[in-house]
Backbone:
């Protein structure tokens, strides 16, 4: 489930795919054709470059979007359009999220738009061509993606004679960030946005760099103090065993790695990711943090620290028969679209000092981070561009002056909530959160076993959206 093990753990953290619903998506969701024929797949001839007028900027590519008319009241009744903003994954893997329930409740049209460079929406015709170098990758940015969404929404509404139908943007994780920014940049196209688990404040020095890992540690400590202590002690033990004769081979055997370890660092990075994923996706009813800690605490009497930790990793969300803990490093050959984005705009400064978390000290180093991006892509990151383009500093004052109709929803067990908006900014830019919730949980398909607090969160979101629509129709009439 990993993209790559990067040369530095700091770069790994920021390039690790958000995974808002990643584990859920990749393990249990099928393609659009396998789900239901009511989803109509279309291709839109999209501009490659929205912001230049050079001859090469007039090139186009085919961008996928999907419509579902099942619940729509129609253009004649100005029924709403719910627009799912695709993020760093094939958009067909997100079709049965709770946005479907919004459409059913409000008689809405469902419109899903795939993010450029993901799924099949590939400039230059194919992934091989699109991922060649910085010249072909250069058209991948959040700004270009937002402009894509704007163009598709406007033209779909025009094609359906639905110009008076209010559109609402929905997104989770990186897609949630895009949803909030879309409302800021294109308020004439959507009347509001639901931004789930959107860490728009995890840039520059707005959020403490250790915020993500502090929450991971809190999740484990609240689950089991002994589990937390075992994990905290395991890092030094991994280093100790690795320094012995045949130490790496012994570690490979203990942790059942798919191939021999090259260094103790590879193993530590892998186990760190396992804990990060578990905390990020600590969803009911499985609760992977509890699974890991139950395995660690429940290991047979006499099991040493590494044996306990290995049992915990085996119980993690990865669920693999062997563990690919031998990293090849971030390389041009293995580089992904998301890694390009984190080497350009999406620079999350994630790191932590000694005794701040349950992990070994590993501060964020922008110089090492930059070197890796230069080595792979030949470009330097722009770590301050996101806050220049979209804001973030003094957000309550700034957005309070001009923004409206945005819901920021978070679960406080989600490590990304460290960079989320957790306080109301105004009467119409509101923060909803749950103490127990994990990453993007409110967007998961509803089930009969959903806890009351999750139902209450969705109910609040529905009431706010109902108010937006009522306000729109009042003005329309």
Residues:
């Amino acid at each position: 489930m990993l993209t790559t093990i990067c040369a530095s753990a700091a770069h790994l953290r920021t390039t690790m795919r958000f995974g808002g619903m990643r584990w859920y998506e990749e393990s249990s969701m099928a393609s659009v054709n396998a789900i239901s024929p009511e989803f109509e797949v279309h291709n839109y001839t999209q501009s490659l470059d929205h912001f230049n007028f050079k001859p090469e900027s007039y090139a186009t590519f085919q961008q996928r979007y999907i419509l579902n008319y099942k619940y729509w009241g129609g253009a004649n009744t100005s029924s709403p359009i719910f627009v799912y903003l695709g993020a760093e994954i094939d958009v067909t893997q997100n079709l049965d999220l709770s946005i479907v329930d919004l459409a059913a409740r409000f008689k809405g049209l469902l419109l899903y738009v795939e993010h450029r460079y993901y799924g099949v929406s590939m400039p230059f015709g194919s992934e091989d061509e699109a991922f060649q170098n910085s010249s072909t990758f250069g058209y991948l940015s959040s700004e270009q993606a937002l402009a894509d969404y704007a163009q598709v929404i406007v033209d779909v509404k025009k094609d359906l004679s639905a110009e008076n139908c209010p559109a609402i943007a929905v997104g989770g994780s990186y897609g949630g960030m895009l949803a909030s920014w879309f409302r800021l940049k294109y308020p004439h196209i959507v009347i509001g946005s639901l931004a789930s688990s959107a860490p728009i404040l995890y840039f520059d020095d707005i959020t403490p760099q250790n915020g993500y890992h502090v929450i991971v540690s809190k999740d484990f400590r609240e689950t089991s103090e002994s589990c937390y202590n075992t994990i905290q002690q395991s890092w030094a033990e991994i280093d100790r065993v690795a320094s012995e004769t045949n130490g790496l081979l012994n570690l490979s055997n203990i942790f059942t790695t798919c191939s021999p370890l090259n260094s103790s660092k590879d193993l530590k990075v892998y186990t760190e990711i396992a804990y990060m994923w578990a905390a990020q996706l600590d969803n009911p009813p499985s609760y992977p943090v509890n699974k890991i800690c139950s395995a660690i605490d429940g290991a047979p009497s006499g099991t040493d620290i590494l044996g306990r930790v290995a049992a915990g990793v085996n119980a993690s969300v990865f669920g693999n028969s062997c563990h690919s803990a031998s990293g090849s490093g971030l390389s041009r050959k293995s580089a992904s679209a998301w890694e390009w984005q984190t080497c350009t705009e999406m620079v999350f400064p994630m790191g932590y000092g000694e005794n701040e978390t349950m992990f070994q000290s590993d501060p964020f180093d922008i110089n090492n981070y930059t070197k890796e991006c230069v080595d792979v892509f030949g470009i330097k990151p722009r770590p301050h561009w996101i806050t220049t383009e979209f804001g973030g500093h003094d957000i309550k004052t700034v957005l309070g002056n001009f923004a409206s109709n945005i819901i920021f929803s978070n679960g406080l067990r989600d490590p990304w909530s460290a960079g989320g908006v957790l306080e109301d900014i105004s009467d119409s830019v509101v923060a909803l959160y749950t103490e127990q919730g994990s990453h993007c949980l409110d967007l998961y398909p509803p089930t009969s076993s959903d806890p009351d607090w999750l139902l209450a969160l969705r109910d609040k979101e529905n009431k706010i959206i109902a108010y937006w629509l009522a306000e729109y129709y009042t003005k329309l009439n």
